[in-house]
Nucleoside diphosphate kinase
Amino acid sequence: MEQSFIMIKPDGVQRGLVGEIISRFEKKGFSLRGLKLMSVDRAFAENHYSDLAGKPFFNGLIEYIISGPVVAMIWEGKNVVATGRKIIGATKPVDSDVGTIRGDFAIDVGRNIIHGSDSVESARKEIALWFPEGPVN
Ligand code: ATP
Ligand code: MG
């Protein structure tokens, strides 16, 4: 079954949105297969966002991700990668529809609460990075 890597970023944890976010994925019908609170270091964050190295916002993005604990999750279900991106909403909160997580809770692209894998291939790589121990069976 398809899986996606979903991460609640430090602002989402600090603002008390963990339960709300988990609830939205649960109510949609997806299954939680991995969950942990983690603090990551610079090298780990740079590895996760390696595709964005060289972007002008890259250093700020890394500082943001290492600024506090994050909640790393594996969610499973039919089309969870694409549907998870819809639940999350567009990258820039000004473009995120109301009813999406970013559309409802964020106003700043640099503090947009949550990450979701952008393809099945990215999900595979990200799950291997964040959950080297593998999913819960
Ligand atoms: P994510 O990978 O975090 O789920 P995304 O796939 O919607 O987000 P990406 O293009 O992968 O968007 O960008 C990764 C993250 O980098 C964004 O979520 C955002 O936090 C940050 N980011 C992207 N564009 C900008 C920008 N123009 N200014 C500041 N931060 C940005
Ligand atoms: Mg992305």
User: Anything to note?
Assistant: The first helix runs from residue 10 to 14. DSSP finds seven helices and four strands in the chain. The helical segments are 10-14, 18-28, 42-48, 58-65, 80-88, 101-105, 120-130. The first strand starts at residue 3 and ends at 8.
